[in-house]
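Give me the fold.
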Amino acid sequence: MKHKVRRQLIFRAALAALLLAGADLCRKVLPYDPFKTDMRSAGKPPSAAHWFGTDNLGRDVFSRVLQGSQTSLYTAICIVLIVFLIGTVIGIVSGYLGGIADTVIMKIITIFQAFPSFILAVAVAGMLGPGIINGMISLCAVYWTTYARLARSLVQQIRGETYIKAAKLCGASKWQIMLRYIMPNMIAPLAVTAALDVGSVILSMAGLSFLGLGAQRPTAEWGVMMSEARTYLQTAPWIILFPGLALFISVIIFNLLGDSVRDSLDARTERNSY
């Protein structure tokens, strides 16, 4: 069983790495300029010259999908890394120090989590204004609470361990204990949450862009491309089909990777319990 879990993890990690590598290298292999318009070629269906067809402005859809992979994937990973760091630090401080700081932080987390996550992201993005940076800020404001609550829970489990008491007796400060002894022992569960969140963040960022609150035209981003193409769904369905497929495949790959990371951690924990 553990060998099957390991093989799945390796295979899905390889798929995710291939996807990210392809997004990084795409600018070197783009067959056309993704931003160049050509009204003479507007709305052409998929062909040998344009594998995914052209959009309403004559831009090559294949080139724009490849270019959009950079924006969509790396923006999502950047968001996950930011909320991972912010949420983990806040959760560790809250769980270890306790007292008034813990009460205030938990009240703030409860307020943020009282709203549906995407609705809250839309509200924040609406207040900040459209733009990819503001979209990232709005999603960071939504996702950090998950990591903070999980980190706080893990700290409360760990802080009573013998090695934490030994560190206190040796004269280690609170910050040394939190950074050197507590944080390394809680990374694995947080990493699982991060791996599972990548797909959700990709989808959420595309949703904000689709609504006009994230990336803006003429940026090649999957949500923007689908928003531009929705009026041509009946006459030129390929304009929205291929960005949608790219979004679907990417979310599936990262969700499967997150499941494999979780299964691998569960298998290791079960093995260590015997």
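The mean pLDDT is 86.
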